[in-house]
Specification:
The chain is an alpha/beta fold and 285 residues long. Helix content is 57%, strand content 11%. Strands 3-2-4-1-5 form a five-stranded parallel β-sheet, with helices on both faces. The longest helix is centred in the N-terminal third of the chain and has 33 residues. The radius of gyration is 24 Å and the shape is globular.
Amino acid sequence: MRLILGLLLFSILFSCKESQKAKNEEEQKSVEKETLKVLLVGVFHFENFNPENNGDIVQKKVSDVLTSENQKELELIAKKISEFNPSKIFVEYPFKRQEKLDTTYQNFPNKANFKSQKRSEIIQIGFRVAKQLKHEKVFAMDLRTNFPYDSLLTQMKKAKQFDLIKRDEIELNELEKSANELFNSNKSLSEIIFFYNNQDYRNNDINWYLSLANQGGELDNFVGSYLASEWYRRNLHMYSIIQKSIEKNDKRIMILAGSSHISMFKSFIDYNPEWRTVELEEIMK
C-alpha cells in the first residue's frame, strides 16, 4: 500500500512539475513574442574614405564601399536585413531635418545603381534596405550636443595631468593604428563591420568616457565629466526619439549608426526588458 501511495504521489508531483514547465514555456514564448527585436548595425562612417578633414579625433583610411567587391557585400547585408524585416529603420541623420530626409528618400530611385551613389551608410545600407522593403520613409534620430575635446586637453594640461594626457595619446594612437591595420587587411566588409559591433570594442569605447575623460581637469573643474555627460545626453536624446517612434504593431526595427552610438544603445537596451538586441552577425549566418 505504501508503495502504491508513493508511486501515486510521485505521479502527481511529476504531472504538476511537467504542467508548470509547460506553463513556463508558454509564458516565455508569449514574452518573446511581445519583445521588440532591435537589430543593431554599428558602422565606420563610409564617407570617411580618403577624408581631408572629417572632424573625427581618430583619423582612419576606411574602405571604399563603392568597389564592386564591397557592393556585393552590401547587397548580401541588405538581403539578410530585409529577411529580418524591420518595420522601421533609424539612421544617424539630424532629427530636425526629417523633412529633407523624406524628400531625399522619396526622390531616390527604387532600382538605383548604388555604386554611383554617395559613400554614405544611410544610402548604402539604410536606403538600400528600405527600398527593398518598400518603406515609405526612414527615420532620422540624431541630435547634436557639445563635445569639448580641446577644452578637456587644455584643462588636463592646467591640472598637470601629464600621465593622463600620455595615456590618452597612446590609446588614440593604438586605436588609429589598429583601425588602419583592419582596413588594410584582407578582411571582408562584413567582417570589418562585425568587428565594430563586438562587445569588447563597445566596452573599450564607453570606457574612454568613464575612465579617462571623466577624470580630466583639476579637482573643482568638471570639463571631463561635462564631455562624458554630453555624449550620454546626445545618445539618450537619440534613444528617446527611437522610443517615442515605436508603435504597437512594430515587432522588429533596425538602428543604423556610427559604432560608438551603437555601443551606447546596446547598454541602454540591455536595461529594457521589453526590447531585445539582435546582432548583424547573427542574421548573416
